[in-house]
């Protein structure tokens, strides 16, 4: 009995005057100092492996984002790299303490707390910043609210449609989802709707401009359950001025340079050939250079490819135009040479043949008059097939005439007119094509 009383006396002597219950109050020690609120809960009785309200209602987690930068947007890999500050708030009744103050804990104490298992959907690579220490923040409020903030750099996939490149508008997403807790355990909400995202208005990107952004709350239905998901969707419009100065203006000037050959005479073969070949090779080099930056996206027929193809067609057409005009001119010159030489010989022969035929016809008529009575004409001696043309020969003759007539329609009578019409048709047709091109890719 004496031992029992002695043990009870010692226990009362060493017990603190006031002991905080689980999740409540701060204890006072010998010198009146206030201990860290909730610290006892982290060391005694607090189970970080169990979520708040375990077995009951789901934990409501409110999130907000600060977009520090979007450093790169890759069309070839179809992703973007962003540095964000992610802030998560939830209430844990086990960490309630008296007072109206908030306390910031060392980031290393995160290992002793329960935190949500939030991850970035479609993230290819990501890491937490740790200079000079891990960039994490834990703040406790008296009502049990926990603020957990961390700075992340992540490379996130973004499905892009490059059919209108470089006049395209891309819609990318940043999706936050719970990895293991389904909607029966946690729920995700934006802290202040669209105002939960900051920094998008201040972003300055090299090729893009942030047009608009908005937040969404969604669910991800998977085989293991339905998981909460938050979505930040933002629209990026590409700045086309750089591409106009780098690609569109040079290609247009090359097309106009190819038209200079229309003002050079057909006899200047070296000059016109040099202009045509030089512009074709320059255009080919420009096309290869424009595609080198997007070598992995050759499956897309982009707007730039269409324009460069149009310009290449006009340049090649100008070269073909000179080939046609020069060939027609040479054929016409070759046709004039035989007409000047053998034509006189033919007329002399025709005159001699006509005189001979007249003499023979006169002699024959005289002989017929002299011995008309002694000559018997028999119908058997006359061959009708020799006097009339056969039917298949008539068909061949008609077809030959029609073919000559058709060929005559496509024969260039005056090669100089080819350059004359090309001076008007090439620029006019190029302007019409440009109007349709820019109207389609800018407004449709």
From TrEMBL:
One of its GO terms (cellular component) is synaptic membrane. The chain crosses the membrane at residues 240-262, 274-294, 306-324, 424-443. Residues 1-21 form the signal peptide. It catalyses: chloride(in) = chloride(out). Residues 247-337 form the Neurotransmitter-gated ion-channel transmembrane domain. InterPro entries: GABAA/Glycine_rcpt (IPR006028), GABAAp_rcpt (IPR008100), GABAAR_pi_TM (IPR047032), Neur_chan_lig-bd (IPR006202), Neur_chan_lig-bd_sf (IPR036734), Neur_channel (IPR006201), Neuro-gated_channel_TM_sf (IPR036719), Neuro_actylchol_rec (IPR038050). Pi subunit of the heteropentameric ligand-gated chloride channel gated by gamma-aminobutyric acid (GABA). GABA-gated chloride channels, also named GABA(A) receptors (GABAAR), consist of five subunits arranged around a central pore and contain GABA active binding site(s) located at the alpha and beta subunit interfaces. When activated by GABA, GABAARs selectively allow the flow of chloride anions across the cell membrane down their electrochemical gradient. Pi-containing GABAARs are mostly located in peripheral tissues. This is Gamma-aminobutyric acid receptor subunit pi.
